[in-house]
Write a structure and sequence with these properties.
- This protein is of the alpha/beta class and about 300 residues long.
- It is built from ten helices and seven strands.
- Helix 5 links the parallel strand 2 and strand 3.
- Helix 3 crosses helix 4.
- The chain is globular, with a radius of gyration of 20 Å.
- Bound molecules: S-adenosylmethionine (SAM).
- S-adenosylmethionine binds next to helix 2.
């Protein structure tokens, strides 16, 4: 198969797919531990989404995880569909190495492949069409989302399902009033993040602006929209250490990325939250929670 581990190594050796600037300015390989921890924490949400998908998709031969990152979800697919071959496709070869190691560790190595390269073009190396394609928060990193959907659809077997996870509701970690600073910090941070996200998209080479009406885009891509459902990750206080680490890392990364765009008061509040020595900071406070909703849209390639 073109996408077994051996060939993935060839990709790694002869290509430069893992260069951070291959697909935008984000250094995905550097994010590996965070992406992995996040997907592990979000596993209950993915399991709900997969149970929903498994009602429509029975016994797929090939499942492709498009923009898989470190492969946590790819491995959940291998577990959910024991008869399936799973291919994790991504532009960041170091993330795919993690995906492969994970699959080996969990005992799925013999039916797990990776495909390194720019998406969606890299999917041309698939040996046969997919029965199920999953793209979780990867499409929004591609310059032309509508064209990408059409390309993904072209790699589906007739009757095959494309499931995309995009949108939903942003993660909340803190109460509206945290006892210091101006109430509503997370909502204001979110507004700044939305601007940064819009700039990220606009700065992608050959970026195409799009009304993000996913059912309409799926229809334009020649697919039949079959369902939309949102899934909740609801980890109430008091949270596990893993959830606390995730919140802490998320807010630290956010501070690095967009801290300077916050007003001085909010930045001071965020810095206090990130101070490990502060009783009211996220390292210690007892009211932290994780609440997030992700939406999954499904569509079928007509027979
Ligand atoms: C936000 S992460 C999502 C990872 C995983 N699907 C999840 O939900 O946790 C986006 C992934 O898309 C990949 N990606 C972004 N743009 C890409 C491109 N143009 N070609 C290939 N992969 C790309 C990144 O390397 C990264 O692993």
């Amino acid at each position: 198969m073109a996408h077994d581990h051996h060939d993935h190594h060839n990709d790694h050796e002869h290509g430069d797919h893992h260069a951070p600037h291959d697909h935008g300015d984000i250094d995905w390989a550097e994010m590996a531990p965070h992406l992995e921890a996040q997907a592990e924490l979000y596993t209950p949400l993915y399991r709900q989404a997969m149970a929903w998908l498994a009602r429509e998709v029975t016994d797929p031969g090939l499942v492709v995880d498009v923009g898989s990152g470190p492969g946590v979800v790819s491995c959940l697919f291998a577990e959910t569909f024991p008869g399936a071959r799973v291919v994790a496709a991504d532009g960041a070869a170091p993330l795919l190495e993690r995906a492969h190691a994970r699959a080996e560790r969990l005992g799925f190595g013999d039916r797990f492949g990776t495909l390194a390269g720019d998406l969606p073009a890299a999917l041309a190396d698939l040996d046969y069409p997919a029965d199920l394609m999953w793209a979780s928060q990867s499409l929004h990193h591609l310059p032309d989302q509508r064209a990408a959907l059409a390309a993904l659809g072209g790699h589906l077997a007739p009757g095959g399902t494309l499931a995309i996870l995009e949108g939903g509701l942003p993660a909340r970690f803190l109460p509206r009033d945290i006892g210091f600073g101006r109430p509503g910090l997370q909502a204001r941070i979110r507004a700044v993040e939305e601007d940064a996200f819009a700039e990220m998209r606009a700065d992608l080479p050959d970026s195409v602006a799009e009304t993000e009406d996913w059912p309409a885009m799926l229809t334009t891509a020649g697919l039949k929209h079959t369902g939309t459902r949102s899934f909740l990750l609801d980890l109430p206080a008091p949270v596990s250490e893993a959830a606390r680490d995730y919140v802490t890392t998320s807010l630290s990364r956010l501070r690095e990325r967009i801290g300077e765009r916050l007003d001085a008061d909010d930045l001071a509040t965020l810095d206090r939250l990130l101070d490990p020595a502060d009783e009211a900071g996220v390292h210690r406070r007892q009211d932290l929670f994780v609440l997030v909703a992700h939406t999954v849209y499904t569509a079928v390639r007509p027979v």
